[in-house]
Each structure stands twice: as structure tokens, then as C-alpha cells.
Design brief:
There is one protein chain. The protein has two helices and eight strands. By secondary structure, it is an alpha+beta fold. The chain folds into two domains: 44 residues; 142 residues, Lipocalin (Beta Barrel), CATH 2.40.128. The radius of gyration is 29 Å and the shape is globular. The termini are far apart.
């Protein structure tokens, strides 16, 4: 035995425009829940990605290697910080950054040989400068997740000419390894691509 379906019948005289509004409203009510659920899913995924990327970057990092290469692939020596300086890089959850790099085996004799050179520094817009074998600054950072760029906004630095700069750093993270690359120009005018590899400091 089959059950008959009850269909709402509108009077023949019912205005056509009202009927169309009723039909359109019903269709809209069916669409809203789906659209809302879909939008919430997209926002949640984006938020998870953002949180995950920031969470991976936040922490203390110790320098493993630092290398500068010319456009022809040749390695460019760095007398200021040496081949493998000591280094630490710190990002916190509030958006603050601090970086310090030091030439190994620094002594007070640097004042005799390098003070005049420090006074003649011109600086470059894309990186901080080394003074007496030391490079340090702190400030805030912002993330460009799409392009994989972290920008350091320098509030203070060893070399006063670096204060107020915003320097971009391309970065990738694989487990406990952070790789940072950027293009710059040495004090001698040589264009190089600099790569720094850091490991999470535990």
C-alpha cells in the first residue's frame, strides 16, 4: 500500500511573483548551510596552515653553516665573519626576532686593526652589517606564507645604519633544520646569494 504525498497547493489566483519568491527563498535556505560549512572548512584549513608555519619557525636556532656564492657559482670569502661564525637566531610567538653572529676567536686586537674600517662602512639595504667581527640586531618579523618569506624589521642593531631596515629572507623548514637564503652585495660590491643553515637549538 503506497502513501500519497501531500503537496501544498496554492490558490490559482495566488500572484505569480509571490510563488517565485517562495521558491527562491526555499532554494536559498538549502544553499546557505552548505556554503557556511564550506567556508568554515576553508578558514579552518588556512588558519591551521598559518599556525603550523609560525609554530615551526618559533624557537631558537643555532647556525650550522653560512655560505656566499657569486653569480658564477664561486664561493665568496667573508673576512668579516669568517667561513663559519657562531650564530643564534630566535623567533618568539609574539612576532619578535633577534639574531647574533660572531667571528670565532675575536680578541681586543680587533680595535687596532678594524675600527677605521668600521667607520667607513656604507651598508646595504638587504642585510645587516658586520662590525669588528660581530653582527647583531633585534626587532619584529612578519611572514609571507605564500612566497615563503620572513621579513625582519630592525629596531636596533650593532651598526646604527641598519636601524629601521626591513630585510627579506626566503626560508624553508625541514624537521629541525631551517634554511635561509637571500641576495645581497658585499662591501666590495660583489653580488652574492647567501645561504644560512640553522638547526633547532634544544
Amino acid at each position: 500500500m503506497t502513501k500519497s504525498l501531500h503537496v501544498m497547493r496554492l490558490p490559482v489566483s495566488f500572484p505569480l511573483v509571490v510563488i517565485r519568491l517562495i521558491v527562491a527563498g526555499a532554494a536559498l535556505m538549502l544553499t546557505i548551510p552548505f556554503a557556511s560549512t564550506h567556508a568554515q572548512g576553508v578558514n579552518t584549513d588556512a588558519g591551521t596552515l598559518h599556525s603550523s608555519l609560525r609554530a615551526q619557525l618559533v624557537g631558537s636556532w643555532r647556525l650550522v653553516s653560512r655560505e656566499s656564492r657569486r653569480e658564477n657559482g664561486e664561493v665568496e670569502a667573508d673576512a668579516g665573519l669568517s667561513t663559519l661564525p657562531l650564530g643564534v637566531l630566535i623567533y618568539d610567538q609574539s612576532g619578535h626576532v633577534a639574531a647574533q653572529l660572531s667571528r670565532r676567536n675575536r680578541t681586543v686586537n680587533l680595535f687596532n686593526s678594524e675600527c677605521s674600517a668600521a667607520a667607513e662602512l656604507k651598508g646595504t639595504p638587504d642585510t645587516a652589517q658586520t662590525v669588528l667581527g660581530y653582527d647583531a640586531y633585534f626587532g619584529t618579523y612578519t611572514l609571507n606564507e605564500k612566497d615563503g618569506i620572513v621579513t625582519h624589521h630592525l629596531e636596533a642593531a650593532v651598526w646604527p645604519g641598519d636601524i629601521g631596515k626591513s630585510i627579506d629572507r626566503h626560508f624553508t623548514i625541514s624537521g629541525d633544520q631551517l634554511t635561509i637564503t637571500f641576495n645581497t652585495t658585499t662591501k666590495d660590491g660583489v653580488k652574492v646569494t647567501r645561504t644560512l643553515i640553522w638547526e633547532r637549538w634544544k
